[in-house]
Amino acid sequence: MAAQLSVEDLLDAYRTMKTIREFEDRVHVEFAKGGIPGFVHLYAGEEASATGVGMQLREDDRIASNHRGHGHCIAKGVDVKGMMAEIYGKKTGTCHGKGGSMHIADLDTGMMGANGIVGGGPPLACGAALAHKLKKTGGLAVVFCGDGASNQGTTFEAMNLATVWQLPLVFVFENNGYAEATASRFSVACKDIAERAPGFGMPGRIVDGHDFFAVHEAFAEAAERARSGGGPSLIEHKLDRFFGHFEGDNQNYRPKDEVKRLRENACCIKRFAAAATSEHGISADQLAAIDAEVGALIDEAVAFAESSPDPAPEDLMTDVYIKY
Ligand SMILES: Cc1ncc(C[n+]2csc(CCOP(=O)(O)OP(=O)(O)O)c2C)c(N)n1
Ligand SMILES: [Mg+2]
């Protein structure tokens, strides 16, 4: 499969994963300083999932996301500076500072929105996939959901409808083992979320979500099915989050050294870099150059966000459906 990926593809994948990681690590630091308002859920650790999927999407393909959405946005091409400013609540943000971390949306890049409602994404993705089907565009929709969202009624309804209507839709379940503080082994009735797929008439696969190449390969198959009229698929990525559920979470429901162990042994970026340099002819210098480029981009994004103006009081009445 890796043969289908050019050196340029691999460098792009590394750049995206690294951008997500640096973005999240930096938001963690800045949030702790008190500069960021609202609630933030970080995606660090899960980068291979958004990246392996996102890099195979066309601009007009649509994604629906969840509360842990920064990685999905970056992988779909949302502007990083605009995202940072949005998280800071600034006028220059992707949604003019009115959405914040949990509601970043950018229809120009096909990012239909992060979503504070667990299980809110799947029905939206059905709508986007239906539009592609009716317009015969060859486009598709992807919804990223957690293990917690996999238990929601809205998700079950969307899975059923997706098969009934044979929609070009891929359900990507990012199973990071927890929904807030509840371990998925307590709350998900079956061993693997993918076991539910046959009950909804679609194929389901379990994928090691730490392995970019496995993610890429599984999604390539599901995307091909969707684009060629073969209907929906489910992919379960088994992966881990490197921060708490939200920034400020003391994580006392996790073994003390769990995150440290995961960062050392289950880091998708380290794993990708090792494979890229040993098997795909990419040099450590090429990766280091991308590291420097990404570091500069994130510095620039934070400086842009910090120096941007707040929305003005009169902006309260813009970007709304109803004007009072
Ligand atoms: C409908 C609904 N119920 C409950 C919540 C509170 N809540 C926010 S995130 C979350 C857990 C989601 O877990 P999961 O889907 O596994 O995503 P993860 O946070 O692990 O990425 C819950 C219960 C919510 N936002 N919406
Ligand atoms: Mg989860």
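^ thiamine diphosphate complex. The domain at 2-308 is CATH 3.40.50.970 (Rossmann fold). The mean pLDDT is 96.
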